[in-house]
Amino acid sequence: MNMAMRKSKFTELISEASKKLKYLVKYVKKDPKDNDELDICNQNMKYVELSTKSYYGLNRINTYPLVSIVMPIYNSNKNYLEKSIFSCLNQTYRNIELIIVEDGSENDSEDFIKSIQDKRIKYIKKDKNEKIPAALNTGFKASKGEYLTWTSDDNFYMEEAIEVMLKFLINNPEYDFVYSDYYWIDGYGNVRGVQVNPPPDCLSKSNTVGPCFLYTRKVYETIGDYSDKYFTAEDYEYWIRVSKKFKMYPLKKVLYFYRRHEKRITFRHRDLVEKTKEQVLQRHFKLKTEKPQDKNLHNTQK
Q1: Which superfamily does CATH assign the domain made up of 67-294 to?
Q2: For residue range 97-132, what is the model confidence (pLDDT) as tens digits?
């Protein structure tokens, strides 16, 4: 079967599957008692849609490199965690591994995570809480991807986020790091604003990268681990080190949802966050933080 015939057959199968699923969803909606069946139908419909987007959108990429997403978790809110995990698994770019590092949580999420039947998930459980930098380093040491990123257990991606950032890096090899704009949302998921990130030369003033980014393995191999000396600003300090050796590019696209809520570290330990930022700037630029410019910029983890 030649390529044209394969594409035609694939299109035919997807079209037929979509029609059947739409009919089934419509039928189940008539009976509110069949909520479980409705959830299954909706999930299947989502899979068909994502498979179609993946086939037509990513067929333009000649190679399919593995992307590693590390997710450190600690005493996670189950609803937030579920949303975050599935935003990774439901990416239009399918060749990912999701490395979840349970950092000594008191309310263990192991049973829930292992109930998700997806071979792309790697679960690492640590008996002792060593905080975010150590959890990230554990995750990246276990990663195999050519491209790397990490996300928080209470934030989530748009479904095309990884595909868009990966395509940019593949098509623009002079860059090794890309980051995007993002929505910030409240604890209920309502959009409250949008963050448009400045260029990387503004890192000398504040954390301009934000929570949605992708970089090459070369960056990781060159820069090394996240520093446990800068807990609450470990991402900011890492980006500064990256900016000194690699070209970084701000995509002017919103690809992520950053959740603001009272249990985030940046809200519970504001004084520590500001103090750590000052330490970062002192180390790299001999400067103090400019607080007015930090108001709308956020640390990427809790």
Answers
A1: Spore Coat Polysaccharide Biosynthesis Protein SpsA; Chain A (3.90.550.10)
A2: 999 999 999 888 999 999 999 999 999 999 999 999
